[in-house]
From TrEMBL:
Signal peptide residues on this chain, from the entry's feature table: 1-28
Entry protein name: 6-bladed beta-propeller protein
Keywords: Signal
Domain of life: Bacteria
UniProt xrefs under SUPFAM superfamilies: Tricorn protease domain 2
Native species: Flavobacterium granuli
Length: 329
């Protein structure tokens, strides 16, 4: 997919993340460990798998039928209670795929952008579900290629039932959107190294937003409660990464790991909040040994500010580039 190869590969290099996270992993003896539930995940191959919450065992669940490209943009994957939504860009066409969790079937249709969306090769950079309005928010970049540098993004609203796209005049100066979260009517879009934008989806406005009175960007963001979100961000030195708590009532953030730094995590897509266990969760690398990396899920308890790793196990190669979209039995 040109979007991933040309643009996101450069982003990964810039952020010093490992974008080649595939390795064989032996299955450990999990007979004595029982899972209470599974995390439902989507990886960059478009596979839908599940991970045991205690064993870390990855097992196949399903897949998106009809995908053409070999990789998908995890920034453009989101979900609700019943469905998982995925955007594929391939050979100049943008398709919306909808996976039904109950029937395990996939529907898809090519999207037609409004005439107001201009650019040499526009494509959807990120996708967010609004459960209150039952609509998808897509942020479209005017040019998926890195040369010339894209400077314009557009907000569109996508009806998942009709596949119609509505543009209400919101555009802003952001090269791409690789992490978003929705708080009420406000959609926050971020790209490391650039300003975070606050987009009012009701009044159709967009503006740069400062946190702690300075430029701030995030990845793997997820809303915990109204006006409170958790994310990965950079420490003051601009290189080391940490978990941060965002307070939207006064536009501040707090470094929750002031004495620690995180190992690399793929930057693309959403974080996940397990509200029943008060945990902010995302995929990461527990040990970044080049020959034998240990892939894991990091579980951060938002009430105690402590965390633990769940090492991943599989009877085949592990694609560690994935996002968590739900919990299932």
């Amino acid at each position: 997919m040109k979007f991933l190869i040309k643009f996101l590969a450069v982003i990964c290099l810039t952020l010093s993340f490992s974008c080649s996270n595939e390795t064989p992993s032996a299955v450990a003896d999990t007979d004595q460990i029982k899972d209470d539930f599974n995390y439902l995940i989507v990886n960059s191959w478009g596979e839908i798998n599940k991970i045991g919450n205690n064993t870390g065992q990855i097992t196949s669940y399903s897949q998106f039928d009809g995908l053409t490209s070999g990789t998908v943009n995890l920034c453009a994957v989101t979900s609700n209670t019943d469905k998982i939504f995925l955007i594929e860009y391939y050979s100049g066409l943008t398709k919306l795929f909808i996976f039904d969790k109950k029937t395990k079937t996939t529907s898809s249709r090519t999207l037609v952008f409004p005439n107001e969306i201009v650019g040499s090769e526009p494509a959807i950079s990120s996708l967010t579900w609004d459960d209150s309005k039952k609509v998808l928010y897509g942020i479209i970049v005017s040019n998926i290629n890195i040369t010339p540098v894209n400077n314009t993004s557009y907000l569109v609203k996508i009806n998942p039932n009709t596949f119609d796209i509505n543009y209400s005049g919101v555009s802003f100066d952001q090269t791409a959107s690789i992490s978003t979260f929705l708080n009420g009517n406000m959609l926050y879009s971020s790209l490391p190294g650039q300003d975070t934008y606050e987009i009012d989806t009701e009044n159709n406005t967009a503006k740069k937003t400062l946190f702690n009175n300075s430029k701030f960007s995030f990845i793997k963001a997820a809303v915990y409660l109204n006006n409170t979100a958790y994310c990965i961000t950079y420490k003051i030195n601009g290189y080391d990464k940490t978990i941060a708590k965002i307070n939207l009532t006064n536009n501040t953030y707090e470094d929750l790991l002031p004495a620690e730094t995180l190992v690399n995590s793929d930057p693309l897509g959403l974080g996940y909040i397990d509200k029943s266990n008060n945990e902010y969760i995302f995929s990461t690398v527990k040990e970044a040994n080049i020959e034998h990396p240990i892939y894991a899920i990091l579980k951060f308890n938002v009430t105690t500010n402590t965390y633990k790793f769940l090492e991943l196990k599989s009877d085949s190669s592990i694609n560690s580039n994935f996002i968590i979209v739900d919990k299932i039995n």
